[in-house]
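Q: what sequence does this backbone want?
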């Protein structure tokens, strides 16, 4: 397998990325690339790999779905008692990567985190399928369970509890926003000479763009 892995490579030739190609703001550029990725038929273009660290400094990563994007940052929703939420409360910092392999692109976002308002959480909650709403009530995310039946029984119990009534937002569930300090746009290029352009917050809280070596 090691030899097979060593031989696996793709020579990126989709195009280049220069400063003049960027929109004026990081969030407009991210929205543009998201739209292009969705239009290309990529499955779950809003999927991003979220990286956190706990109080002990040990990192963890997992895939979540971006469900909000504006000048304030990128938003995802989760159980506030989950492992990721414990990490975020401990360090108040996170990074996320949108890995668009078929587009030969990546976007990296990193910065401090904050919880979104209850009004924002409610607005998103109302867009969720009922099954997903029930699942948020039924699953004590990241807690060890004996077997699958525990989860199925919990979902059945919650479904019976709410019947045909609207499902309210659980008190333990809501959104986190990564408030970017740096947002890097990565475009694959031939010979591993990739383009990396990074929006950065400066000391006076304005944004600048810097090119990084690949």
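A:
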């Amino acid at each position: 397998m090691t030899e097979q892995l060593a031989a696996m490579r793709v020579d990126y030739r989709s195009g280049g990325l220069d400063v003049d190609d960027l929109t004026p703001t990081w969030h407009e550029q991210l929205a543009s690339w998201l739209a292009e990725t969705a239009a290309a038929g990529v499955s779950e273009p809003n999927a991003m790999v979220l990286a956190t660290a706990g109080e002990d400094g040990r990192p963890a990563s997992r895939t979540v779905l971006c469900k909000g994007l504006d000048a304030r940052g990128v938003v995802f929703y989760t159980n506030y008692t989950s492992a990721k939420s414990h990490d975020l409360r401990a360090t108040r910092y996170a990074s996320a990567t949108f890995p668009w392999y078929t587009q030969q692109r990546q976007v990296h976002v990193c910065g401090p985190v904050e919880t979104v308002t209850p009004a924002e959480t409610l607005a998103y909650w109302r867009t969720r399928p009922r099954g997903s709403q029930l699942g948020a009530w039924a699953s004590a995310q990241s807690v060890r369970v004996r077997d699958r039946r525990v989860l199925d029984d919990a979902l059945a119990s919650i479904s019976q509890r709410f019947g045909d009534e609207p499902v309210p937002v659980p008190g333990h569930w809501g959104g986190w926003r990564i408030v970017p300090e740096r947002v890097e746009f990565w475009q694959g290029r031939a010979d591993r000479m990739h383009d990396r352009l990074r929006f950065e917050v400066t000391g006076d809280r304005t944004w600048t763009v810097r090119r990084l070596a690949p």
